[in-house]
Amino acid sequence: MNINSPRRGRPRDPDRMKRLLTAATKQFLEYGFERASMDTIAKASDVSKMTIYNYFPSKEALFEAVVGEITDGALESIPPEDLDPLSPEIALSTIGKVFLKLKRSDNVVGSFRLMYAAAGQHPEACKVFYRQGPEKITQQVADYLRMASSEGSLIISSPEVAADQFLSLFLGGADIRVMLGMHKPTEAEDNQLLNRNVTMFLGAYKKN
Hints:
Elements: H1 14-35, H2 38-45, H3 49-55, H4 59-71, H5 88-104, H6 106-118, H7 123-132, H8 134-151, H9 159-168, H10 173-179, H11 187-205
């Protein structure tokens, strides 16, 4: 569900929506999807339950908006000049840096832990999370790779597969340790990981 999509009724107030999504994010991350309370979200955001359900007809719809709020704008925030299809090394380095920052954020780590814990009981919520999070970001990377391939700077027959491969390079041991609450890599360690991953990816797909 796109939180910006138009619906019938009164237009959404931006400040009210921000309070609502902030309160919902806190509730979902602290209590999980099942135990998250719509009453508590309404009270904390000072938005009535009737208004919340007018915006989002179900808890799943509200959760989808929360996930979208966390992930939306991550890659869109990259300046266009840093995504030049003729300069894939710069573009992929920028994309990788933004992805690592997103993946290391407390909200994203908490969301993944929440979904892993809820997978057996709430498959629909997990589908929502995947659609608004990993799937959306992978498609955004695929869109760039498609442009680079069209310009001839990369040779890629399946941008979606290549995008998944690129992002998966960042989900190794360091990411597992973060998910387990052990420790986050230092900036220097993440930069080293980023450089190695970009070099490896370009070795497979860059035009000689």
